[in-house]
């Protein structure tokens, strides 16, 4: 439901823009558009009421049809408006006397399409009135009946019962966590303490809380206990009443203030334990805490939630503990599965003939105890033969939706989706458009969301900053998993959704025709569709019936058949396209018809063989993103400078994967005049030269730049570039690559660097580390390559207060690296590579307290582990590559020299170079 609201909202925005544009040119058109906007606002009100109703009761078929009609009408309105805007854009702006004659002729011609447009608006208004009438018949303007609340509560309770009554044999891997929780409950400070159990649905929060709550030692420790299940749309008065029923049933009070007062008085003299299970609302604690006195008697409150923001709201100084639950390890998941699936006849042991299938089934459960237990329980009732188990394995995803013996899994996971606000639902659904198992970078997500119109302006924040807030909220709700940094330690990170959540996403997307996924031999789009994602297509993947209304086309894993991609016909049919992703497609050129795509906002040609862009690209006045990474494009046409809405240009080519090679790196040449691209936020990498200093001077006019990469920088250009950089107040990422390994990067002239800088990268010689670098208090990532510094850079850099990642590659010619006491307080990842003269690495006491990963590669003179490495208690990974065999063997578990120093490190890996582009484990 909220998805339809989210769909209608951008249509309203477009209508408002159209009203402003056409205000003076055609009053009758303005009147009709305003009337249409009013009708759409009424329907939007019905939608909001329908959404509230749908959360409390199952939607009737008639309501589903009504929603489909609203969605299709919203599509229709958007199509009509976009076609009209396209027509206007294609018939304007000629200069001179001939231009005057042309404009006069066009004004006369324009009357006809405007009248046609008015006629279409009238038809849409009539259709909207019919939809509105049907909405009134469904009663969407009235409140939902009281009984539906009871249905929801019963359903919510039923979903959770399985988590409340799990036996000890299904409680593997949570025993130690339960014991830790019980200790927190009965020992520790006398102050009131809130303990939050956090994690995604099905991870075991409720089970863990219940096991601790039911323990005799816990019950005996407290004067009174209460278990309260909090529904998604809880009623405060009812919740307080439930607490009163559990704790002091003799109270019969209705007013909230009196209930809070009586509860406080009752609990004031008692040591109490209260569990609030499945809390969703962020403001929950701010209200309920008033009924829970901090009485200095060792009272405890447990809150289970899927939402990080709920735990943040519960925080009260040091009296708040957070335990985030993670999926089961493979070993524990396997034990749990076998114990339950083979409990009747085989005493928990898996027959050899079923082992491969069983392992595959466990993998699909992805470490969720609830899912493993449910699936294993179902299999325990099946015949123990390969065909029976293969049948379930092949249909496991659909079984979660339809099998009556697995009723709670899909519902539990779906609750997280249903609880999302309307503005987050389309963003979350978008994860399903990418192939399964394919991670997506945060920045790429932001680009797509913005191009699709999902992100709304918010104060003085950029759309990218708002998109980041949206993603962070999804992460905080434990719906999106963050995997780690990309190579180079930049700010961009990979993210994906749990496979089981992806199944729910695909089911919901299919239900509302949010997008269609085609591929294999079946490559037909069913009916009208807004977004098409094409995987592994064997036929001509664009032989589709209805593509005129398509707004997004994303292709993945299409290889070997460039003749199948008839892009001329694509561009002719898909004139309203906003997003086009051709990553990895084996095409060598783009047709001139690219200019037809006036509404296009995002064009991705990454990893294609395209060599040049057609000059018609200058017609794409709405283009925001141009991604040319790892293409053969070396120079942009001058027409690019006409694209005043362009926000991001990615354009470098690099095929080497280990280290850096100047000969294999290429940037983009651009024509002078880029200073007019006032919205530009990303420019990576601009190729410069000594005979074109003007383009560097123009950079100072790009005041919105956040990410800047410069290639082939020479010492002569250093001062000019420095003068531009100091004026980039929003700059967050700066990467500078010199003309050659011997070229010096002269950047001493920066007096007041942009304090917003978070990533700084140098590839080229440096005479010394500039003083201005030490002023960068927000710097998170710093890399030096080919710097050939004579003084120890770590001594200079260790005071940077927020540095998290430091990378040195052929950057230092000295023999000793010394990290002094207390240095690098925030550093998490340190990489030292190809430092040929380094013989000793000293780590001072109290330094690197947060270091998680240490990577050492190709330091031929280093014979032993860094001193004091044993004191780095947060160290999780030590990775060694291309090191002397003496050093490698000493670091092995059976080594006799340094192994004790890294005994506390869970992962110590050694690699040697094999071929040019990869390392193999030793």
Automatic annotation (TrEMBL):
Gene3D superfamilies: 1.20.5.4130, Helical domain of apoptotic protease-activating factors, P-loop containing nucleotide triphosphate hydrolases, Ribonuclease Inhibitor, Winged helix-like DNA-binding domain superfamily/Winged helix DNA-binding domain. The keyword Nucleotide-binding applies. Residues 178-345 form the NB-ARC domain. Residues 8-96 form the Disease resistance N-terminal domain. InterPro entries: Apaf_helical, Disease_R_plants, LRR_dom_sf, LRR_R13L4/SHOC2-like, NB-ARC, P-loop_NTPase, RX-like_CC, Rx_N. Residues 19-53 form a coiled coil. Residues 550-881 form the Disease resistance R13L4/SHOC-2-like LRR domain. PANTHER family: DISEASE RESISTANCE PROTEIN RP (PTHR23155), DISEASE RESISTANCE PROTEIN RPM1 (PTHR23155:SF1052). This is Disease resistance protein RPM1. The lineage of its organism: Eukaryota, Viridiplantae, Streptophyta, Embryophyta, Tracheophyta.
């Amino acid at each position: 439901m909220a998805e339809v609201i989210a769909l209608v909202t951008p249509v309203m925005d477009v209508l408002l823009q159209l009203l402003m544009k056409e205000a003076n040119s055609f009053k009758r058109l303005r009147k009709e558009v305003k009337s249409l906007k009013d009708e759409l606002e009424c329907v939007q009100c019905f939608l909001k009421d329908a959404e509230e109703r749908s959360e409390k009761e199952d939607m009737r078929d008639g309501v589903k049809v009504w929603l489909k009609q609203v969605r299709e009408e919203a599509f229709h309105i958007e199509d009509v408006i976009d076609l009209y805007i396209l027509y206007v854009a294609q018939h304007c702006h000629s200069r001179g006397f001939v231009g005057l004659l042309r404009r006069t002729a066009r004004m006369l011609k324009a009357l006809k399409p405007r009248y046609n447009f008015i006629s279409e608006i009238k038809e849409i208004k009539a259709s909207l009135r019919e939809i509105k009438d049907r909405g009134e018949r469904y009663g969407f303007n009235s409140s939902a009946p009281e009984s539906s609340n009871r249905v929801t509560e019963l359903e919510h309770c039923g979903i959770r019962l399985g988590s409340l009554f799990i036996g000890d044999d299904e409680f593997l891997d949570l025993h130690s966590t339960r014991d830790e929780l019980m200790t927190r409950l009965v020992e520790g400070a006398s102050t009131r303490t809130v303990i939050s159990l956090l994690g995604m649905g099905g991870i075991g929060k409720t089970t863990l809380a219940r096991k601790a709550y039911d323990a005799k030692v816990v019950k005996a420790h407290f004067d009174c206990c209460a278990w309260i299940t909090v529904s998604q749309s809880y009623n405060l008065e009812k919740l307080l009443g439930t607490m009163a029923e559990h704790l002091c049933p003799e109270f019969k009070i209705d007013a909230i203030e009196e209930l809070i007062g009586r509860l406080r008085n009752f609990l004031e003299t008692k040591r109490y334990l209260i569990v609030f299970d499945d809390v969703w609302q962020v403001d929950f604690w701010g209200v309920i805490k008033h009924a829970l006195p901090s009485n200095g008697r060792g009272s405890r409150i447990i809150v289970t939630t899927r939402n990080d923001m709920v735990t943040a709201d519960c925080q009260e100084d040091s009296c708040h503990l957070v335990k985030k639950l993670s999926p089961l390890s493979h070993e524990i998941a396997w034990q749990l599965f076998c114990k339950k699936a083979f409990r009747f006849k085989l005493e928990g042991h898996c027959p050899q003939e079923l082992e491969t299938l069983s392992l595959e089934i466990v993998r699909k459960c992805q470490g969720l105890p609830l899912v493993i237990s449910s699936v294993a329980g179902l299999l325990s009732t099946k015949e123990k033969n390969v065909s029976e188990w293969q049948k379930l394995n092949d249909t496991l995803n659909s079984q979660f939706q339809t099998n009556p013996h697995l009723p709670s899994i899909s519902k539990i996971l779906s609750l997280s989706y249903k609880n999302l606000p309307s503005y987050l639902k389309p963003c979350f659904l978008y994860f399903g458009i990418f192939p399964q198992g394919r991670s997506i970078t945060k920045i790429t997500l932001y680009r797509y969301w913005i191009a699709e119109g999902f992100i709304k302006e918010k104060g003085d924040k950029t759309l990218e900053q708002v998109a980041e807030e949206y993603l962070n909220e999804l992460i905080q709700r434990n719906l999106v998993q963050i995997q780690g940094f990309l190579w180079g330690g930049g700010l961009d990170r990979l993210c994906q959704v749990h496979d089981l959540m992806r199944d729910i996403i695909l089911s919901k997307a299919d239900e509302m025709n949010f997008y269609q996924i085609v591929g294999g031999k079946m490559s037909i789009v069913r009916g009208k569709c807004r977004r098409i994602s094409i995987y592994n297509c064997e036929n001509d993947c664009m032989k589709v019936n209805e593509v005129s209304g398509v707004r997004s086309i994303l292709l993945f894993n299409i290889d070997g058949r460039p003749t199948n991609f008839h892009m001329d016909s694509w561009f002719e049919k898909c004139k309203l396209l906003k997003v086009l992703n051709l990553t990895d497609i084996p095409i060598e050129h783009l047709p001139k018809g690219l200019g037809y795509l006036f509404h296009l906002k995002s064009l991705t040609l990454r990893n294609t063989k395209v060599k040049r862009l057609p000059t018609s690209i200058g017609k794409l006045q709405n283009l925001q993103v141009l991604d040319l990474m790892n293409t053969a494009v070396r120079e942009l046409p001058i027409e690019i400078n006409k694209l005043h809405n362009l926000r991001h240009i990615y354009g470098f080519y690099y095929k080497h994967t280990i280290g850096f090679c100047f000969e294999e790196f290429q940037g983009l040449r651009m024509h002078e005049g880029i200073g007019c691209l006032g919205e530009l936020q990303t420019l990576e990498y601009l190729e410069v030269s000594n005979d074109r200093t003007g383009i560097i001077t123009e950079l100072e006019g790009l005041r919105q730049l956040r990410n800047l990469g410069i290639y082939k920088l020479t010492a002569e250009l250093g001062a000019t570039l420095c003068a531009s950089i100091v004026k980039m107040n929003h700059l967050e990422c700066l990467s500078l690559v010199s003309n050659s390994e011997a070229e010096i990067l002269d950047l001493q002239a920066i007096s007041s660097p942009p304090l917003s800088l978070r990533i700084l990268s140098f590839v080229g010689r440096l005479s010394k580390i500039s003083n201005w670098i030490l002023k960068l208090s927000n710097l998170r990532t710093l890399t030096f390559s080919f710097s050939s510094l004579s003084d120890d850079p770590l001594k200079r850099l260790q005071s940077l207060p927020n540095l998290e990642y430091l990378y040195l590659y052929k950057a230092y010619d000295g023999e000793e690296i010394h990290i002094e006491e207390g240095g690098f307080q925030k550093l998490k990842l340190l990489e030292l590579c190809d430092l040929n003269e380094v013989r000793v690495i000293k780590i001072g006491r109290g330094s690197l307290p947060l270091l998680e990963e240490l990577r050492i590669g190709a330091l031929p003179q280093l014979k032993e582990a860094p001193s004091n490495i044993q004191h780095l208690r947060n160290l999780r990974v030590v990775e060694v590559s291309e090191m002397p065999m003496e050093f490698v063997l000493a670091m092995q578990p059976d080594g006799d020299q340094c192994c004790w120093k890294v005994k506390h490190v869970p992962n110590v890996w050694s690699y040697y170079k094999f071929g040019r582009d990869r390392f193999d484990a030793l």
